[in-house]
Specification:
By secondary structure, this protein is α/β, with parallel strands linked by helices. 46% of the residues lie in helices and 15% in strands. 42% of the residues are buried. It is an enzyme of class 2 (transferase).
């Protein structure tokens, strides 16, 4: 496995070299400096620890329902959460559902052994992706029960390539693999991996719980009062160009837009382009006529999942770039959903389209037609909304399946 260790070393060295010039690289490098001293000072050696590892923020959201269920039903365990990427760690470094949150030291044989010597986990849970060969080998050598949850395997993955032998062998480190769909189970069976459970996607449990107990947001409630509301979440510039045209073409409708990144220049440009006026969420109380504006810009993080509850229509950003963001947060409230063309990797998006609950658009004209068709046909709107909500409800339950598998034979505390 010399080639793998060489690659890890080259990657770590490259990150260090570019860290003075790139913020994300700097966070990655600085976050791992003196990491073992920090771990030794923080983590108690007498604790019963379950180690959860997520690559980034998206994987964290997949594992979050399971971590919260462990906290609720098995409180004698402490939770150690690690991240590979700054985009996960920097946002969730103070996550209250874990007892400790750290960066994961680079996957070298020495680091893997020292990490496990320090934290001594009773169980290790990897979330969706991240197959670190040295960590998995060391966990296996120490006979630490190791699992992967919410995993998805595709035919073009390295496990199914002729040169993927080391990664196929790494799959044997897992006591059980909890996958999202039967396709993944079949692919694994084809390479002799049968300790697999189709549990589903934990995100359905997460968004369902959010919808059930959605936060009341007085500013949003005041803005939305008495009008039909269109909510656009996690938007990027290509999305916002289309949305500004849609807003200006529908002066009788209220719009709420939550940009994916809080870029001041973009926010000001969008606000200035809307003829019906715009107000920022963080300044709403200071604007006497905020409720009369047509656009509310969500310029803070952490509330979008509840904002969808005020909408009658939703648009999910990212589809004109690397891929759409979370469609389920909106669908959980029973809202018809639209998004850009890059959605093929997301099963839930394909499913929602097939059910008539969602529409992929490639232009402003297509988005305008979709909205107008639902506005003019209330029966069609009702069917789309009902299918969206029913889809999320019917797919809940993955967290419970995983929890039973992780703690097989143990009574809940």
């Amino acid at each position: 496995m010399w080639w793998y260790n060489l690659g890890i070393g080259v990657y770590s060295g490259a990150v260090k070299m570019v860290s003075p010039f790139m913020r994300k690289a700097a966070l990655w490098y600085q976050g791992r400096r003196d990491i073992f001293r920090k771990l030794e000072q923080a983590v108690g050696s007498s604790e019963r620890i379950i180690w959860f590892h997520a690559a980034s923020l998206g994987e964290f959201e997949q594992g979050r329902p399971v971590m919260e269920a462990v906290r609720e039903y098995y409180p004698s365990y402490k939770i150690l959460l690690t991240f590979f990427s700054p985009s996960g760690y920097e946002i969730r470094r103070n996550y209250s559902g874990a007892d400790w949150v750290f960066y994961l030291p680079a996957d070298t044989p020495r680091n893997a052994a020292r990490f496990l010597d320090t934290v001594k986990p009773e169980m290790a849970v990897f979330i969706k992706y991240e197959f670190w060969l040295n960590y998995l080998a060391e966990l296996s050598r120490r006979e630490v029960p190791t699992y992967i949850i919410s995993a998805v395997f595709r035919p073009d993955s390295i496990f199914f390539r002729p040169w993927g032998g080391a990664f196929r062998r790494a799959l044997r480190s897992f006591r059980r693999l909890f996958v999202q769909d039967a396709d993944s189970q079949a692919l694994l069976a084809g390479i002799g991996v049968t300790n697999v459970t189709v549990a589903g996607d934990t995100r359905f449990d997460r968004v369902g719980r959010i919808a059930d107990g959605a936060r009341r947001l007085p500013a949003v409630e005041d803005f939305a009062a008495g009008g039909t509301v269109f909510v656009a979440g996690s938007t990027w510039p290509p999305d916002e160009e289309i949305l500004v045209r849609l807003i200006n073409a529908n002066p009788g409708m209220k719009f709420i837009v939550a940009p994916h990144e809080m870029d001041e220049k973009r926010i000001k440009e969008m606000a200035g382009a809307v003829r019906g006026g715009a107000v920022r969420y963080t300044e709403y109380g200071e604007a006497d006529d905020g409720g009369e504006k047509q656009l509310l810009i969500i310029d803070t993080i952490g509330i979008l999942s509840s904002v969808y509850g005020y909408g009658s229509y939703a648009y999910i950003g990212g589809g004109f770039g690397v891929g759409i963001h979370n469609t389920l947060e909106a669908a959980a409230f029973g809202i018809p959903v639209a998004f850009g063309p890059n959605y093929a990797k997301f099963r839930e998006a394909r499913d929602l389209i097939s059910l008539g609950a969602a529409r992929s658009i490639s232009s402003y004209e297509e988005l305008a037609v979709w909205l107008a068709s639902l506005q003019s046909d209330r029966q069609a709107y009702g069917r789309a909304a009902a299918e969206a909500g029913a889809y999320v409800r019917s797919h809940r339950g993955a967290t419970e399946i995983i929890l039973r598998g992780l703690f097989e034979g143990q009574e809940r505390e």
